[in-house]
Amino acid sequence: MTKDKLLQQIEEKYKKLGVPLNTMLEGLLWSTPTTYWDYIQTDALLGLQIPRTTEKDEMIFIMYHQVNELLFKMILWEIEQVAQSKEITAEKFSMHLARISRYFDMLSNSFSVMQDGMEVEQYLKFRNTLAPASGFQSAQYRKIEFASTELINLIDARFRDTIDRETPFKNAFEHLYWQAAGKNYETGKKSALLNLFENKYMGDFIDFMEDYNEINLAKKFKQLPKETQENIDLINAMRHYDHTVNVKWVMAHYNAANKYLGDGDIKATGGSHWQKYMHPRYQRRIFFPNLWSENELKNWGIDNLESCEILSN
């Protein structure tokens, strides 16, 4: 492209924005070059790690969870591109699901950093300074769930028969599967973990639930033409995502926790009985149940499903 042609296109672009070409060019004259550290905000990023104890491995714990949150943001960014599309092809849907699955594959594989990267003695010292904080309180992870599946699939399995599409979002929220990590359903009493989490995010969550009620990944799939829903690559991508998030990643987390907390004598920092809260066979959380066989659903979280994770042509 010639210089004159390039200047013409730039002028047209900024004219639409109401910015004179000379003003924009003069701004470029005085601007400084972009550097890697400015663009990535390296100094700010590396200043976000603030340990609460003198135990050296706490720094690993903090940074690992911050990396998780960055990956969660990437996942939500990908989901939004599917959810907000007016019309979407099987190829584009599959592409974004593949990206999301790669992020969760990274999360699953990275648990060796937690499982083998800290001394048990150090962890058991600094963990008590964190109560009642818990990884349970990741708002982005909860939004990933809301954006991935229909709300009924996130309801505690014990209460799904009492919830339907006419149920107010607030009532549905009170029966989400993860409420069991901090709520006594007989008394209605909630733990400090849950109360703090809800005080911070409940309003945002309910708005988000409502926003994604008709555009979550499961709903977007059901809105596709029948022939697109039968696309084998798209089905495989959805099954892989479902299994990676709800079995593989959860079990990696479970196994890492088991190393440090043993056979269950030690409760999680939030006070929950973490084995029942975390294990897939208790959660019964499945994003796309209609894409799994009756036998696969029956053995969810018991049989690892690796042999049937990807459908054959």
Could you characterize what this model shows?
The protein is an all-alpha fold and 313 residues long. It starts with a helix and ends in a 15-residue tail after the last helix. The chain is 58% helix and 0% strand. The chain has helices spanning 3-16, 21-30, 36-40, 42-46, 57-83, 90-109, 111-116, 120-126, 139-148, 169-173, 192-211, 217-222, 226-229, 232-261, 274-278, 280-283, 294-298. Helix 5 (57-83) runs parallel beside helix 9, helix 6 (90-109) packs parallel to helix 14 and helix 9 runs parallel beside helix 11. The chain has one domain (55-308): Methane Monooxygenase Hydroxylase, Chain G, domain 1, CATH 1.20.58. The chain is globular, with a radius of gyration of 23 Å.
Layout of secondary structure:
Elements: H1 3-16, H2 21-30, H3 36-40, H4 42-46, H5 57-83, H6 90-109, H7 111-116, H8 120-126, H9 139-148, H10 169-173, H11 192-211, H12 217-222, H13 226-229, H14 232-261, H15 274-278, H16 280-283, H17 294-298
Helix pairs in contact: 5-6, 5-9, 6-14, 9-11
